[in-house]
Every structure is written in structure tokens, then in C-alpha cells.
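UvrD-like helicase C-terminal domain-containing protein: C-alpha cells wanted.
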Amino acid sequence: MPRLAIGPEFPRELSALAQPVRRDAVVALRRFLLNVAGAPHPERVRGARDPRVATLRLAEGHRGVVVRQRDVYWLRTLLPDPEAWSYARRHRYGVNPAIGVVEEWDAEALERVEPALRRSARSARLFAPICDGDLLGLGLDLEALPLFRLITTEADVAALEPLLPPTQYVPLAVLARGGSLSEAWKELNAWRATEQEPGPIDPEDLYAALRRSPDRAAFVSDKVALDRVLEAPGWCTFLYPPQHRLARAARFEHPVLVVGGAGTGKTVVALHRAAHLAARGAGPVLLVTFSQSLADELSAKLDLLIEDEVVRKRVEVDNAERLAVRIVAGAEGRRPPLVGPGARSLAQLTEDALRLLSITTGDLLDDVDPGRKPYRHMVVDEAQDISPAQWRLLRAAVPRARDDLFVVGDPHQRVTDTKVALGAVGIPADQHALDRSHRLPQELLTFAVRLRGGSPSPGLVKGVTDLSAFSADRHGERPVVRAYDSQEAELAGLRGTIDAWLADGVPAREIAVGARDQRFVRAAKRALTGLDVRASTFQQLKGLEFERVALIGVAEGVVPAPPPEEPYARARALQRERSILFVACTRARSMLYISHSGRGSPFLPL
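Answer:
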């Protein structure tokens, strides 16, 4: 029986096909997996740069490209016949000898690049001072080493990036900008998804390499597993190495804080960590987020992620405010009123909940009996907007033990006036960072960082965090900023833009329209009458993502609203307004449209 691994591109390509072709491809794959009569057989590729590459005829006019080693098949892509044959001839594959992950090389393109590098090579080669042994120790490919030796400038390295596996490009880029061997190794090691294994890496063991590469391969053993990988959203199955390392760690002895910019996958890590703890932890798990709408979103995503109903029931999803209300209601026998006579503020309810929890489970240091706490594990998303009082309540709801608190957040995406260091509320956390956005194209990311101001923000641990190391892993469209003479013209422009996006084939559910306040939201909804497109405030877009986003009314006097006069309050208000707009801008995966009538917001980059 074949051992079949699916690559992340394959489900996306399959879903884009016409339904009859998609059905035939799935049936063919099921037959291949079961090794029954009528199953597709691997066909050799003439002129292939890697003899292990073959194709499988999966449907009329369409082939899958596989990398084969004995009974292991890595299904890379699904393309029309001519494109599949071309792809199969173009690429070669290997195993990084330093960290053991799989690598894909655009060998054909590199062959075309080599003469140009040779012609432009000067006597002073960039990596001449570094011996072959040191370069090979960084996992650089022996076959590609002569090519790397031709490089003379940092620009040469940048030009090679699209053609190289990231585990080859990353150490080269560090060395090219003057970094040390140890710095290059640190960057390479960040691509390790699992703990370092004892003993040497076998560069000929494709199966082991695929197991170490959760972002590149998912093994399926039967029809159920195959259908799961093909139908589930990609984030359910394929985790980037830093995400996998954090989400699937066997254990953490201390509270963990994961910080990362927009699109780095913080929420995905939180979801997978909650699922991991539910399956392998020591008790009930609480997944906490900023608001009830985000809690509903996370709950729906957990339903997709966790197939086992028993395991799914071990995870509760809530926000800190509702947790406080539940604790008080449980102790007092009725739900406390939040409005009207006798109503308590949310801050008062949080303090009451902490007091009641301390009475029933012991004080914050009394964790001799972890079973007295309502939860054994807690995962917190959108941590930057949790108040100090809420943090004390969350800390009291889980025992001080291994795998107690797993926290993710981004200080640059604060939409409240809350600023707190976790250590000040009894949570001395070990910090980890995610600094590569997989959602935003570099052009949109650069625009958003300039809009945000790029200044450091008070961190969730002592000190500040900045955006200097934040980057994207792909390029795309530049954001569009349009100025109109009147609000009527701006709304007409919005309607035309959304109509064009829908005509491009973008599903309505993948489009969002945002505005700073409800007045503009209502105007947008009137302009979009008859279109099933989401329109909401900037704050309500928090935690969500869409293929394309349109933001309207980004004008002077609206974004930001007139701030207070007192200098300190003014500075805080303006920074909060920048963060809110930054959050709204970074909801887009591919295209951002911003409009205003009259003068534009002073936050917009020139």
C-alpha cells in the first residue's frame, strides 16, 4: 500500500476545478490510496531533473505531480497535462542536511540564472571569506554550492529568493547582509518544526523529511483522512514550522506568550494549541478572546479543527467579560443585571468574580490541588486588549502548573486603552515571536506599517516591541487610495469597486467594507443594497480576514476623531486611532481599497 502525503497546493488546485473533474480526481486518488484495480499508476517524466518525479493521471486532461521514493508518494500539485509535465521536468527535490526538512528547487530557472551570475561575477565574491565546510554546515546544498560561490552582491541573493527553498535562502540572506554564522544558523533553525532529533539526518530518507515538514506535507492513510485534508481549510492541516513548534510542543513548564504581527498566524497557533491540550492535556481547556463575536468565530473554527466530539467538548470558548458574569451568576444564583438599577459595571463584576473564585478555589498561590480550579489549561487570544483586572481573573482560573497559560497577541493591534505587562499581574511568561506574515503581501504590509507609524509599543512583557523584523513571504497588489469630491461620489465609487470585485469572481463572503463609525457603515450598506457583502466598523473587523477589504470615510476629522486637548490623553488617543486603522487595513489577504471625500486622514502614508 502506498504511503501518500498531500502538499498544501493540491487541495487549493483541486477546489478550483469544475465539479466533474474534481470528482474524478478524488475517486482516482482513493483508488490509488487503496491500490485497487483502475488506480492511476506513476508515469516517468522524460527529461526530469529529479528521477524520483512522476505524474499520476487523475482526471481527463489533468495530472498530479508526485515525488516518489519506494512506497512513499508526495503529491505536489494538480495541473492540466502540459503544465504538469513542465512542472515535473522543472523541479528537483532534496532534504536539508542540517534540519532535515524537504526542499523544492526551481532547477530550470537556476540553470538559466547561472550564466548571468557568471558574467557579472567580480573578483570579490560575497561568500569568499567563508569556507565550504561552514556553508555546508548551514544546510546549504552541495550541488548548488558552485552557484552560491558566484554571488557578488546582496542584490544577487534577493534575486534568487523566488527560486530557492526558504531554508536555503534564509542563511544566505543573513550572511549577505553581514550576519555571522551563528546568526545564520539561528534563522535556519527557526524553520525546524520539531525538536532536534538525536543522530545525523539521512538526506536520502524522504519519508522522515516529510514528517518533519508539516507545512509541506500531510500524510493520509485512508479515505476519511484523504477527504479531511482535501476539504478542510488549509490552516487546519498545514502549519508553518514556527507555528507547529509552538502549537504542538509536548509541554511548557511556564506560561507562554507568543507575539506576532498581523497575518503571522497567532490565532491559528492558539486554536491548534487548544486542540492539542484538549487531546493530550490534563483537564478542561478554556480558550479566551477579546469579544463575544470573536469567541463565536473561534468556536466555529474549533468545530472544523477538532473532529472528535469528545475532545471538542473539552474546550470552552469565551471572553473575559462573560467568564466573570458566569462566575458571579453561579455564586449568586442568578445572572447579574448589566443595565438598569443595581447594575454593576464590568470592572466591578470582574473584581467580584475574582473574589468569589478565590473563596471557592483558594487564593492565587494556593495551587496544591489543581482540581479545585475551574480549568486546567487556558489559551488566550487577542491578549493586548485584556485589562489588568481580567488578567488577574484568568490567572486565578487555572492552577500554577505546566501548560497552564498559553497567550498570543500583538501590542501594535490594540483597539482599547489597555496597557499591561503580564509579569505585573502574576504571569511571568516566556516570550516567543512570529515575525513573518503569511496573510499580507509585502506591499500591503509596508503600507500598513507606515500608516501605523512603526514606533515601538508597550509590550505584554517588560519593555517595548517594534515592527522592524516584520516581513511578508510574498508580493502582491499595492493598496489603492482614492479621493472624491463628495460623500455621494465616494459611495458611488465604493459600489463600483465592489461590483468589479464580484465580477472578478471574488465570493461576497470574502469581501468586507469597513468604516470608523456606524454613520458611515449605514451609508455603505445603503450604497451596497442587494449585495451580500459584510459592512461593519473597523473595530468589528478585528480578528477576521478577507480576500479584499474596502475602507471608506478615511478622511480628516473622521480618522482620527478630534482628540482631547490634554497632551498625554491626546497622544494616547491618536495612537489608539492609528492602531484601529492598522487593524482594519491588515484584514485583507490580497487587496486593500481606501477612500475619502475631502482631505484624507493625516494617518495615510504620502
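The two ends are 60 Å apart (CA to CA). The CA atoms of residues 379 and 406 lie 5 Å apart.

Cheers.
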